[in-house]
Amino acid sequence: METRNKKMRYLAVGLLFLAMGFFSSEAFPWGFATHAYINDHLGKTKKNQNADEIYGGVAPDTFNYLFNFPNYLGFLSDQTHAGFMRLWNVSNQGLGKSLAYGFASHNDLWGADSTAHHSGLTFGQGAGYVIAKAALLAEILKQVPEYAALGLPDEATLEISHELVEDGIDLLVKGIDPSIGQKLSSSAMSRTSNFPVLLVKTYARDLSQFAGISRQEASKFITAAEKEFRKSIVLYGQALMQDEATAIQLISEGTAEVAAVFLEANGITPPPSEEIVPLIGFAIAQSIILCADDFEAEIGATIDFVNQNLQTHGISY
Fold it and tell me: What pLDDT does 26 receive?
């Protein structure tokens, strides 16, 4: 019986990691702190404008956690990452424009996400910086007995590694800018009040048509999703404000919790977090080692790359 229970626990953990992989690499090529750092070095320097650019820079991921609404998740995430110019076009002058500027900088076509996911500038050319580092982390994980016991396919291991590399880079960013957690958290708390209105103007009609719901229902759904996302960014920033060991622990716990929500939404009972948090923490620590020597050069090159592309596409205010 004990052996069977152990196998069942391994199966549950394996499903958990597969769930993490499902929502990681395609949706989150750079982590939140990394996007915050990039946007802190783009656009305007005035305090309020800079803060809204930072929040705008993470906001395209607003809908990436809608695990109870998987069809909505895929549709809206595609809209925010590929249809980002639509929000820029409906934004007005003032802080709404600052948010839209950050929002546009995030994109997966020629924005910040493209260097993480498609082609790195200093490492991972033709693959993406995060993707290339994830391949290295995946090889390390395969050598860990506790991980190998899960029996996951190589593809799932690679997907898992994407998420954990992003976490590691966020912690490295904290090292070069210890205030990044405060900036991220503050940007979410102080973001201009009309941002949900911009999201509704941009995406509610299409969501209504896609989902077969009323425009009012679509508007309420978008507004509620942004409210919850905003709270999560405040908490993530606060985690990064702690010492490194505490931050790694909190982020590891948070990663496990998000994955558990996904599992529960799909009718799977997640394993106890104490069984997986240490393994996640180990992987994040390995990610830090893998990226420590060259992450800063890649982020610096990404800032220059995105700045030039924003100008080329007429995105300035």
Answer: 47
302 exposure class (CB count in 10 Å sphere: 0-12, 13-18, 19+): buried
Instruction: Give buried/exposed letters for 221-252 (b at 16+ CB in 10 A, else e).
Output: bbeebbeebbebbeebbebbbeeeeebbbbbb
The answer to whether 265 and 67 are in contact (CB under 8 A) is yes
Interior/surface letters 102-129, b for 16+ CB within 10 angstroms, e for the rest: bbbbbbbebbbbbbbbbebbbbbeebbb
> Which letter does DSSP use for residue 1 in this model?
-
Average confidence (pLDDT) over 198-211: 96
For the stretch 256-277, pLDDT in tens is: 777 676 666 656 676 677 778 8
Identify the H or E element spanning 9.
Answer: helix 2-22
**Does residue 42 come out as left (phi exceeding 0), alpha (psi in the -120 to 50 range) or beta?**
beta
pLDDT at 124 > cutoff 60:
yes
Least confident window among 36-45, 101-110, 152-161, 302-311: 152-161
Q: What is the largest CA-CA distance in the chain?
A: 66
pTM score, two decimals? Answer: 0.88
Tell me how far the alpha carbon of residue 55 is from its chain's centroid: 12
